[in-house]
Structure formats: structure tokens, C-alpha cells
Amino acid sequence: MKKNAITHRILCYIIAAFLLPAGCAPKVEPGGADSTESAAPVATAEATVQTTSATVVNRDLLLDPARTEDADSLLVGGYLYEGLVNTDDNGDIQPGIAFAWIVSDDELDYIFEIRQDARFSDGSPITVDAIAENFNRWFEPKHPLHEDGNFPAWKKYFLGFNGERDANNRAVSQIDGVQKVDVNTFIVHLNRPEAQLLNYLAEPSFAILSPAALADNPDYGARQSAIVSSGPYVVTSWTDEGMTLSPNPLYWGSAGDGDLNFIWR
Question: What is the pTM of this model?
Fold first, then answer.
């Protein structure tokens, strides 16, 4: 990360949350920390077969969305987890764990303001540190949770990992790194402008997971006991017949009115 080049930006961003000076152009500020509306989880995969009482999905789900391209896993994961931003039915970017954001004039820094009422389903807060851990898991090969680096969506949208260079010695990935400014503010630094960054981050694959749960469970996402939600639903049943998701009582927004049932294909 270009640390020497960002000091003046950080000062600007801290002030921007209150004054929005000319040096930091406001890009989107669609909601507030007290907002109670939430966009429905969006999965990019093909819709699964519906029945009158349940959705039919594959038995072998992997509810670690960063590590899978399976349509059914991403569908279910879209109810369990949330990213910094979401998209609505029209494809427009909406607040998620981040309630507001601005973009620097050179479009190389995206500054997100994080909800202070966001919680994982185990009661722990979704902090800027937890968000940074997720990004570093995806991007940084030396991170302990990066493991074999099998993050297909990251490679699809962000092209490479930290330290990878092309034939012209240019960084392969658009992402230069991430940074915690304070307990409320998180920055994604880019090597070059990426107009679709917010759309990419709205993908189910970039939902925020509990770093503690990931560290404690090497097979995270393959069994009920390991799942810690950041989104509107939690897993309440995972049997030989199927699974049930119930509204997450700790979700910052509206979790829905009833259970979601899935049966195995």
C-alpha cells in the first residue's frame, strides 16, 4: 500500500464525514446509521427450483461464499451474510454493513462509514477490524486465513492477489490494500480506478464473515455448528432432509417475517 501517499487523504476523509470538503467528492450517501430498511440478499447465480413450501437446493452446500461458485451455496449464503453494500431489485447500490460512503476525486480511495449497530449472530460487533480481516483473507497470501487462496470470485473480479505483477511490472489486482482509519471508517485503496467496485462488493462472495468463526473452524461453512451470520437469517436446522433459516434477532435491519425452508435435491 502507498502509505506515504495517503496521509493527507486520511485527514480529509475524517473531516469529510462531517463537512465533505472539496478535496473529497461525495459519491453516494444513501442512508444513515438509523436506517431500518435492508435490500433483500442478492445471489448472482441461477435461481433454484421452487416448491410451494421450500426451495430445493443441492445437499453439499458450502456456506463460505468467498470459496465457492456453487449457485445454491451463494443463494443460501445471501440470506446468512451481508457485505458492505447490497443491490436492490433494479441493480442499484444500497447500504449494507456500510451505511454511507464517499469516493476520492482520483477514484482511488473508497471510504466507508460502518454501522455501529451491526452484529454477528453470536453477539460480537461487526467492527472495522473484522471487515479488514475479511479483505486481507481474500487479498493477502500471507494472511493465516488465506490458506490455498481458492477465492474464485476475487480472482474473477479483482484479478489477482497482493504482490502479483504482470509483464509490465504493474500490479495485477486493482486493489492496493485496505485501511482502518478509526472505529467507524474503513478505506479500500485502489491501484487504478475501478468503476464497478461497488457492484463487485455487492456480490454474495464478498459478504463479511466472522474472523473468529473462520479461525476456529477449518471446515467452516460445511456444518451448522460453525455458521455465524452477519445477515438477516441464521441456520436453525440442518438435517439429512434439509435446512431451515430463521430471522436473525441481532440483525441491524429487517430480517423478514418467518422461516425459510430448504430441502435437498
Answer: 0.81
